[in-house]
Amino acid sequence: MTGISRRSLVAATIAVPVLTKGVAKAEGKTVKIALLTPLSGPLARSGELERIGALMAVEDVNRNGGIKALGGAKLDLTIADAGASVETVAAAAQRLVSDNELVAGIGAWASSYTLAATEVTERAKLPWLTLSWADTITGRGFHYVIATSPPSSSIIPAALEPLMALAAKATGKAPATIACINDDTAVNQSNMAPLRAGGFDKLKLKVVMDENFSVPLSDAAPLIQRLRRTRPDLVLLGTTATSDSRLLLQTLSEFGLGQGKVPVLAPSANWGTPEMLKNMGASNLEGVIGVAGNWGSKQQATLLADMEKRSKEPWMIQDTLSTYGHVLLIADALERAGVADRDKLMAALMATDTSDGPAKYYLGGHLKFQSNGRRANPVPAVFQWKNGVPLTVLPEADAQAQLTWPKPA
CA nearest 344: which of 330, 358, 356, 326? Predict the structure, then answer.
């Protein structure tokens, strides 16, 4: 297998500003697709992981004969930097859609970024795939958006219910109180909405703290001081930036609440990155429970080993796996559409119903979409740090390790 070097990851095609016609056709031997992802700013590492997945997938599709229904046309990937704000995302999306040969796009990691980007791509009738969670992404009546992750309205409750049962089994008593610290991004506010609207009551959890902060967080001490005073049984840390996750966990340890003294639930893929291990150390992360839209599965062992070798990443997380799958999903839909036409490609994407090909890169192993573009019956991923590795622990069919409840010291 060909390796994906750091140098090759820097190479990106710049979108040419041409007025879009809403339809793109394969010209010559290529079909143009795009990845819009943060490659600068606090979310750049997540963008890099998405870029790794996209490049590997394009390489694989092209090596295996390209799009056979289009005479072996190769995928041509345009990579654009989403930047560090919704304004830069919207501007980048506008530059992308001006290329009338572009047939589909992927991105832009953070839900707030995806919301901004899809306002632009929807007007251009450009099929757009995302791993972002916020319900509003597919709740606006748009017709050119595909979302493969579980929505925010269900992902955290679906993770908390089995976790609460496990805690009761492990300790003899289910957690009774919870303290929540979230950033103010669209995804984490969407995550909290169903919990605040009766979800915590249903789980018999009393909220003793519910605080929001703006990204990036400069000082976590005041938040953790308040948290310590509440003496919660469970802490929920909702962050999107790795730097914020690291700062909160470090401050928890400084105040004597780290290393399993208080169970930590972290609903974001950034909690499972190699950077967290490098900056925090295995002992500080041990037992932290993460929630994501996708993660590695024991059933993907061979696929994961190949991707890790080529990318030189120690393990595959949501960002790389889902983006890889998005490219394969576009390629699969192009084969079924038989033409690189935006409308026909979108119709093929919406008609997806498979347990093969791209479906192998998602927990649950099946891809089908509802009328609003949201994946039908998506399975949330729950992973836990064990001996320096974030391993899938739920769902059980995909589990790489057994879930354990971190007990107070």
Answer: 330
Check if the beta carbon of residue 87 is closer than 8 Å to that of residue 66: no
C-alpha to C-alpha distance for 135 and 138, rounded to whole angstroms? 6
Contact (Cβ atoms closer than 8 angstroms) between residue 121 and residue 50 = no
Single-letter residue type at 156: I
Report the predicted TM-score, pTM, of the whole model to 2 decimal places. Answer: 0.86
Where do we find the tokens 């750049």?
44
Residue 206's CB is within 10 A of a number of other CB atoms, namely 13
Using the structure block, give the residue that is written with the tokens 């192009």.
334
Residues ≥6 apart with Cβ < 8 Å to 218: none
Contacts of 305 (CB under 8 A, 6+ apart): none
Alpha carbon of 172 to those of 61, 164, 208: distances in Å?
51, 11, 22
In degrees and rounded to multiples of 5, residue 346 shows phi and psi of -65, -40
Q: Which residues pair with 369 in a beta bridge?
A: 375
Buried-exposed string 305-319: b where 16+ CB fall within 10 A, e elsewhere: eebeebbebebbbbb
The confidence score (pLDDT) of residue 407 equals 62
Sheet order of strands, 145-147 included: 74-81, 30-37, 102-107, 128-130, 145-147
Query: CA 166 to CA 394: how far, in whole Å?
Result: 12
| Per-residue model confidence (pLDDT) at position 96 | 97
* Amino acid letter for position 256: G
Under 8 Å between Cβ of 91 and 291: no
Q: Which residue has the tokens 């605040």?
A: 196
* Residues β-bridged to residue 209: 179
Q: Which two tokens stand for residue 214?
A: 């703006």
What parts of the chain have a pLDDT lower than 70?
1-28, 259-260, 406-409
